[in-house]
Amino acid sequence: MSGQHHPSLEIIGDYAAGSLPEPVALALAVHMSSCSACRMAVQKLEVIGGVVLDELPPAAMDTEAELDRALSSLDEAKSAESPSEPSDLPHALLRRVPGDLAKLPWRRVARGVAEFAIDNYEAGYRAKLLRIQSGASVPRHTHRGEEYTVVIAGAFYDSDVVYNKGDFAEADPTVRHQPIATDGGVCYCLAVTNAPLKLLGPIGRLIDPLLRRRAEH
Amino acid sequence: MMDHDEADYSALIVQIAEKRDRNAFATLFRHFAPRIKGFALKSAPDPAMADELVQDTMLAVWRAAQTYDPARASATTWIFTICRNKRIDLFRRRNRPEADPPEEGDWVMQPTQENSAEISAAFRRTRALMNELPSEQADVLRMSFLEDKPHRAIAAETGLPLGTVKSRIRLALATLRQGLEQ
Prior knowledge:
The complex is a heterodimer of chains A (about 220) and B (about 180). With about 220 residues, chain A is an alpha+beta fold. Chain A has a domain at about 100-215: Jelly Rolls (Sandwich), CATH 2.60.120. Chain A has helices at about 10-15, 20-30, 35-55, 65-75, 90-95, 200-215; strands at about 105-110, 115-120, 125-130, 140-145, 145-155, 155-160, 160-165, 170, 180, 185-195, 195-200. In chain A, helix 1 crosses helix 3. The radius of gyration of chain A is 21 Å and the shape is elongated. Chain B has two domains: about 1-95 and about 110-125, Orthogonal Bundle (Rna Polymerase Sigma Factor, Chain: A), CATH 1.10.1740; about 135-180. Helix content of chain B is about 75%, strand content about 0%. Chain B starts with a helix and ends with a helix. Chains A and B meet through helix 1, helix 2, helix 3 and helix 4 of A and helix 2, helix 3, helix 4, helix 5 and helix 6 of B.
């Protein structure tokens, strides 16, 4: 089923072009694993790449020598079918997360909220999984850069808007929010940021510098 | 150019899939290899690496030919997507995150003559729409597809403010999307 909340056209276009930073592409891949509308949108824009490739003037090369090289490798080129174990998680995520969600070494960040850092990426990008217990809320915060969130399981709401499995949310420094998991069970999300969050509220202001220092390591 | 040959290139990929036809592969290689090399040179001026991208892409075409669906993409567009992914793998040394394949009955189309004709028509329509774009939009759109560069790098290269690059690409994409829905 397609969800209600989709990534912007800009993100879809960059993914089709191949220029989207990898962690954001990961969030989009997770979204598209349950959204056929966005898969179709990417397919339509990929035609731009076909046109661009078609109109490129051929580069100088020793075509016959390179063809011979390719032909001699064909027999070794096995088909790339890899047997995959059945899982509820999208494959793009399984390639980057060891094992099933319940067994990850979660680190508690607030009451009912834990996180697991997936990787650090180029240009300050970070990707992490969030586990929010039913009814628990992420500390109220805003952003120093962009934040992309996609729901992996469960649901959360953010100022009365509900985000279900597969839904994609984008936030930036103009957004102040406090996402809360619904009562329907544990909510797992993938969150990608390109700058540390800025916590709000009295306790948030107190611990924000500490989190920032840790984030900069 | 495309108008005459695209269906033939699709047929060649199908022949590779069905018969492991090395002659079909050679014909495809002679047409696409110099273009893939040109594509590679746009993101890194390194001829040896560009030749590697040609090899990686064309071997992937051979391996993945069975997954090619002429009703879903034209030959050139399909080869672009492989080339784009291989470029990411080769230059960034990382795998590109991909969506899971669709479930049964989700979006799979049956490859029919009609669908293939629609695919060719969509290709021509996209090209026509791109040619109608204001050149300031078309230029940054082409750069974003050709050069494996984030908007920030395009802004640095062109001397345009980042916001201008973003809004031009957004406008171009919106025009294309709207035009393709008509």
